[in-house]
Each structure stands twice: as C-alpha cells, then as structure tokens.
Design goal:
about 160 residues, alpha/beta, three-stranded parallel sheet, binds 4'-phosphopantetheine
Length: about 160
Amino acid sequence: MRVIYPGSFDPVTNGHLDIIQRCSERFDQVIISVLKNTKKNSVFTVEERIHLLKESTKDLKNIEIDSFSGLLTDYSRKKGCSTIIRGLRAVSDFEYEMQLALINRKTYPDLETLFMVSSTGVSFLSSSLVKEIASFNGEISCFVPKVVEEALREKFKRGAR
Ligand code: PNS
C-alpha cells in the first residue's frame, strides 16, 4: 500500500520523523509531500525543506520526497494514491484534522485519511515552537535531527524571523 504524508515541514521535526518511521514500517511506500504554500511565511524554501527531509530519512528505503501546490485532493489523484496520513498530537489537533479529512473526502470520495497518534515523547512538538526556540538561540537538539538543527542555527544567524 502507498500512502501520502503531506505537510508544510518547515522544518521537519522529530515528531514528523516518528510518524514517517512508523509509516515506513507498515506501508510499502511513503510519499512525503511538501506543500509549496503561498500564504504561510516559511523560514525554509521548498527546496531546503526537501533537502532536510531527504537527509533526515536517508536510512529508510521506501520513502519518496515530493512537493505539491494547489489542492491535496488534486495532487492525490494525480499521484494515483488515495490514502493520506496525518499525525494527531493532541485533542487540539482533532477539530482541524476532522475538517480537513471531511472536506477532502467530499471533493475526492475515494480518499481515505488515516490518523496516526504521535508517540508520547514527541507529542508536544511543532515546527513553529522549534523555530521560536531557535530564533532565541535556545536548545533544540532533542527536537530535530542534527542537519535541521544546523540549518536553523544558520537561518537565525542570518536574521530570519
Ligand atoms: O503541516 P501542515 O501545515 O499541518 O499541513 C497542512 C496540509 C498541507 C496537509 C494542508 O494545508 C493541505 O492539504 N493544503 C493544500 C490545500 C488543500 O487541499 N486544502 C484543504 C482543502 S481547503
């Protein structure tokens, strides 16, 4: 079974990697798809986010890293893959994720969204919080892989906010 794990990944954290690792063990292929978001103020470009994902998942064999713009349903159709994975960290994620899953199913009835519950050790993590800590030069080594830690340090040294 092939699954799509979509997201902003700005940048990938140990929370994302927990989901990716567990998907990789259970599914034949995991397509990690980076949203080329026009609205969000991203710290990393799509190319940088893809690079960080590639480096962070290089030990996993059944991973494809891709990007998409527009609707996730259109992308899923184009990819010929109708199973989406989303991580659930806490109840607070649930309302938005339900809305997303239901609206996506409305526009693509065959689309199935599977929720994977985050491991407890990373369930508090988010890219936004990691970026905030990094922006104040705080300790992030236990939240992101080494390559991401270095990239964040470099970004904020150059004045990204
Ligand atoms: O990592 P994120 O930011 O929580 O991921 C959100 C994502 C990329 C899954 C979602 O924003 C998305 O699918 N965006 C593409 C546009 C779309 O299809 N929106 C849903 C219907 S309005």
